[in-house]
């Protein structure tokens, strides 16, 4: 029978590799918790088309490599660097693997403050979950041009950062036609769950020089570059401060200001994407019992959350070339 199909794309690996790593500096400990996905591309077609497993690096091996590097990598405390280390090792170790795609979701752990001699100090080895937002890192390590010409691409950011302000937001002068029922408001609750991603420009990765291909060299960290460990906290700070202080004309307008500032602050970032779903809070109408709970700014105080439907606002802002 004539072939009617062909394999046009293939990628495989391990997902949801859960890692908690403790790094000890004497009595002072650091912890990170990651969920790791590591996927591979390369000369693997025959495993699909010919049932030939000789080209398959088992997904269980990918899991074990992830754990081994979590133990041995000096970059484990930084998800961007650890993802790049893992991806570089995978494409360097296996001759027929040309690309690695590593995604890391980092959960929040913050030191518990304790009272010591009248002062609040962070505890050396005790932590608490201080929020449900997560750091997200997505890395592509590409050795297609050769094992000595590896290039990296990184997108990083935040997911599920829930924020709310009770005033300082309006929504007026929008399109009105026969389908419009929404009332214009010059004051409202503004709440959203922030998904932020920012993408760095492509960069070269030095090839490992050791026999086991475990070496990973981090170059000088230029401010605002992928190697600058302060970028994630700066981006989070811009997001929160802009949201809090902007006299918002719309979600769209505030989003744009956030992204503009992140690009201005970080020379290595080429584009910024925000996805901001509305978290609607609607004032409860109490006119039936003679109570005004509708008038903005003065009387609207009791609200009901509406889960669905919700607005969804997204945009990508790119650096001018």
UniProtKB/TrEMBL annotation:
Biological or metabolic pathway of the protein: Purine metabolism; urate degradation; (S)-allantoin from urate: step 1/3
One Gene Ontology term, aspect cellular component: peroxisome
Keyword Oxidoreductase applies: yes
UniProt xrefs under PANTHER family: URICASE
EC numbers for this chain: 1.7.3.3
Claim: Oxidoreductase is one of the keywords in the record: yes
Location in or out of the cell: Peroxisome
Binding residue positions for O2: 278
One example of a Gene Ontology biological process annotation: urate catabolic process
Name of this protein: Uricase
Record-stated family: Belongs to the uricase family.
Highest taxon of the lineage: Eukaryota
């Amino acid at each position: 029978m004539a072939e009617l199909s062909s394999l046009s794309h293939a990628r495989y690996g391990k997902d949801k590799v859960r890692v908690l790593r403790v790094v000890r500096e004497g009595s002072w400990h650091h912890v990170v918790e990651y969920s790791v996905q590591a996927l591979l591309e390369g000369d693997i077609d025959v495993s699909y088309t010919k049932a030939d497993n000789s080209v398959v690096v088992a997904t269980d091996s990918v899991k074990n490599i992830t754990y081994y590097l979590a133990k041995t990598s000096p970059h484990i405390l930084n998800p961007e660097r650890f993802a790049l280390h893992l991806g570089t090792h995978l494409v360097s170790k296996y001759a027929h693997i040309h690309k690695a795609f590593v995604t890391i979701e980092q959960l929040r752990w913050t030191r518990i403050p304790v009272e010591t001699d009248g002062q609040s100090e962070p505890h050396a080895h005790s932590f608490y979950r201080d929020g449900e937002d997560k750091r997200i890192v997505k890395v592509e390590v590409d050795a297609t041009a050769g094992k000595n010409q590896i290039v990296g691409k990184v997108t990083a950011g935040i997911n599920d950062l829930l924020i709310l302000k009770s005033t300082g937001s309006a929504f007026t002068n929008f399109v009105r036609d026969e389908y419009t029922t929404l009332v214009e408001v010059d004051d409202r609750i503004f709440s959203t769950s922030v998904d932020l991603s920012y993408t760095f420009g492509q960069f070269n990765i030095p090839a490992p020089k050791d026999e086991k291909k475990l070496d990973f060299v981090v170059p000088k960290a230029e401010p605002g570059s992928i190697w600058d460990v302060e970028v994630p906290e700066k981006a989070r700070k811009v997001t929160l401060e802009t949201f809090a202080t902007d006299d918002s004309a719309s979600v769209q307008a505030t989003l744009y200001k956030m992204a503009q500032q992140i690009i201005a602050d970080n020379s290595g970032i080429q584009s910024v994407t925000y996805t901001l779903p509305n978290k609607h809070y609607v004032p409860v109408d109490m006119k039936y019992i003679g109570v005004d709970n509708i008038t903005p700014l003065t009387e609207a105080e009791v609200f009901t959350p509406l889960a669905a439907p919700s607005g969804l606002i997204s945009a990508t802002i790119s650096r001018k070339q």
